[in-house]
Structure formats: C-alpha cells, structure tokens
Amino acid sequence: MSSPTQKTSNAAIEAMIGEMKTKFADRPKLAEIFENGFRNTMNTTIQILEDQTTFVITGDIPAMWLRDSAAQVRPYLVLADKDQDIANMIQGLVQRQMEFVILDPYANAFNQSENGKGHQDDLTEMGPWIWERKYEIDSLCYPLQLGYLLWKNSGRTVQFNETFRKASEKIIKLWRTEQHHEEKSPYLFQRFNAPLTDTLTREGKGSITGYTGMTWSGFRPSDDCCEYGYLVPSNMFAVVVLEYLNEIALEVWSDEALAQQALQLANEIRQGIEQYAVVDHPEFGKIYAYETDGLGNYNLMDDANVPSLLSLPYLGCVSEDDEIYLNTRKFILSTNNPYYFTGTAASGIGSPHTPERYIWHIALSMQGLTSLHSEERERLLELFQATDAGTGMTHEGFHADDPTQYTRPWFSWSNMLFCEFLMDYCGIRIHK
After folding, report:
1. Residue-wise pLDDT tens digits, 3-28
2. Strand order in the sheet with 397-399
3. Secondary structure (3-state) at 340
4. What average pLDDT does the chain have?
5. Of 430, 402, 421, 300, which Cα lies nearest the Cα of 362?
6. Residue in 134, 35, 78 with CA at minimum distance from that of residue 392
7. Is residue 367 pLDDT above 60, yes or no?
8. N- to C-terminal Cα distance for the chain?
9. For 93, phi and psi rounded to 5 degrees?
10. Verdict on whether the full-model pTM lies above 0.90
C-alpha cells in the first residue's frame, strides 16, 4: 500500500477493475465510474503508517471519520481472502479505529497525529488527536462491523486483540450510560457562530429524552444534530453489531460474560425500538420513525447518510422483505419524506446537510443495494450515468434539476458505495 500522494498497482484491485470493465463493456460510463472510485480511494485516501496501522481520510477533508473510513474500505473486503496486502490494510484500519475509540469514544473524527487540527474551539472535551467530537452512535458501530466482516471474508481473527476487546468494553459502557442520557451522561457539545445543526441545545445537553432502552445520540451520520435523541436506524445498527460482538466473544475469546453483556444490551435496545420507534401512519401503515424522544414525539423522515432507514437491510437490521421496512421504504421514497426530492434530472433522497433539492449519490446507491426489483436497479444505474457531471466520479449531493451543480467533487465514501452497488448488481457480494 502507499501514501495518498503515490500511485499503487495492486493485482487484485486491477483484476476486479478489469472484470467490471468486461461486464459493463456495453455501458462504459458505469465501468469508468467504478474504475475511478475503486482505484482513487486506494491511491488518494489510504495511508499505511509506520506502526502498520491504517489512516484513511474522507476525501477533501484531511481527517479520518470512524464511519467513513470503514465504509470506504468495505468493498475491498471481497478481495481480502485473495490478497494479503488488502487484508493487512483493513486489519490496520480496525486497529487504528479501536485505538481512537479507546482514546475518546465520543469523538467522530480524528487527526493522523497529535497535531491539534480540526474544531478545537468547540465547547466539549477536545484534544490534539481529535478533529471533531460530535457523538454519533454509528461511529462506534462501524469499527465493530469492519472487524467482524474482515473475519467473515478472510478468516482472520488477529484483529480481535486486546485493543479490540478494550474498545468493545468501552463501547458497551458508553451505550449503557447513554441509555440514561439525562441522568448519567458526561457528554456536552456546543459550537458557536455556526448553523444550528452544528450544535446541541440546552447548553450542549441536547433535547430532552425519556428512558426507552435505546441509547442516545447527539448527532446523525450527516454530522447534523439530532432533533430527538433516539436515532432509530443507528440504534438498529447497534443491535446488529452487539450481536456480532456476542459471536466474537463466544467463538474467538471464549468470554461468556462479555458475550452476555453484549446480548443483554442488544435485547434492551431492540425492545426499545419495538416499543417506541414504530409509528402507525394513516397512509403507509406501521413504519419506523427516524428519531424519537421516548416522550411521544417522532421525526418522520430519512436522511441520505448511512445508517438510514433506507439502509436497514444492507446493515443487517431487517430482511429486505420485512413488512414494516417495506412500508417505511414506500414512505421515505415519496414526497412524504421532507428530504425526498423530485426533479427533471433525478429523484431521490437528500439531506438537511446540503442545499434544498440536492439528491445524494449515497442514497441512490443504497436504494439500489436494497431494492428487490431489477427495473428499479436498472433505472438507478442509468441515473448514475447521467448525473456524474462528466467527472467520472460520484459526488455528495447534486441538484435534482441540474447535476452540474454538486457538492464535494472528491467524496470517497460515495464513490465506494457506488462500487459496492455495481459489484452487488453483478452478484459479487461481501459475506456477512
């Protein structure tokens, strides 16, 4: 592997690119976007450090998000059993992620060194390693998931070392604390002279919540603040990774006590979701809320960023044909979702994180990855060909009427999720 300034030539990556070029010889634009994304992420965002851990920048921001970094390397998992360098790179990322979790489990993004870059003026417990300290449940889910998927796709278990165990115990402890955010949480966050979505109300405590069994989140995976503290898709993802941790504890560590802790917490969160997060909608029937507070308030919407309600089958939270999910899917892929935009160029889910009527390529990829209908998947592939603005890459958001208006020309997570969609379309899938 290489530093972001170097070019790499990896035989397994080149073989995958060649295979996709062959499969899409009649649609060269799709093959081009795949090639650019699959190679660009490796060449420009991934760096192997002296200690053999891996640091992955998100693209046009020189920091590592726990969520983004895991999502960026995820498509390479299909090559991890064939290529030791790729498996080592992913293992090194899991190690660095877990080291960061131990350093501060409330932080979402970190610096490569103790250089003090990032949002050091935020009113929270910042430090020189931390780029940003917006607490998001999914920041802790993704490293657990990546370690587990590396095991299932390569057979490796060396990533489940003492660092992984210590970080896992810290995650369980934090999620238990945040089940009682009002009474027990030490976490506060305020950012001044910024949009309201960048800070928490009540002097950094966030909006009031009641106990549900779910665990609280300050921010969404978009890095925007939660309106209500129980972010449902992230809680559902937490259940999945706690069950992964239960399996790791039993099969790798033979630690029944830790396995039971993980399973008990998963069951409490699941029960909270079933009791507090399902809403009976007059048009769509039973659907999942995006957020709730345990006090009777609900936010019915979906955001393009993952975890999202759209992504629930992809993350392993529900089956693709789950009735409540399908009802929810119909709701969020309609104008009943305040962030579903329709235009002359495209229709899809956007985010309050980007301008009005901007559709996200991440959401289009996720729609394809979770679709049960070949016609829908074909239509989405056509949309990608038509909305790259001639760049041969995906973006963050683009205007529903004019794809040449877009945000973030270099956004590795989006590129790699498209790569995963294209591989999935061809039956090349990550083992879960």
Report:
1. 333 345 699 999 999 999 999 999 99
2. 358-360, 397-399, 402-406
3. strand
4. 97
5. 421
6. 35
7. yes
8. 25
9. -70, -45
10. yes
Strand positions, DSSP E, 120-206: 130-132
User: What is the DSSP pairing of strand 64-65 with strand 109-110?
Assistant: antiparallel
Q: What is the pLDDT of residue 9?
A: 64
Tell which residue, 148, 153, 140, 163, has the closest CA to residue 53. Answer: 163
Q: Write down the number of H helices and E strands in the chain.
A: 14, 15
Q: Quick one: tokens of 429? A: 């899938």
Amino acid code (one letter) for 411: F
With a cut of 50, say whether residue 2 has pLDDT above it: no
Closest CA to 185 of 229, 237, 242: 229
What's the gap between Cα 270 and its chain centre? 20
The residue type found at 153 is: N
Provide the token pair at 412. 């590795």
Q: Which of 65, 37, 258 is nearest to 55 (CA)?
A: 65
At 64 the pLDDT is 98
**Structure-token pair, residue 424:** 């999935």
Beta-bridge partner residues of 430: none
- What is the pLDDT confidence band of residue 231, given thresholds at 50, 70 and 90? very high
Backbone phi and psi for residue 139, each to the nearest 5 degrees, phi listed first: -60, -30
DSSP state, 382?
A: H
Nearest to 299 by CA among 215, 353, 225, 388: 225
pLDDT at 5: 36
Specify the pLDDT at position 265. 99
Q: How many CB atoms lie within 10 A of CB 100?
A: 24
Q: Is the bond preceding residue 307 a cis peptide, omega within 30 degrees? A: yes
Reply yes or no on whether the pLDDT at 289 is more than 50.
yes
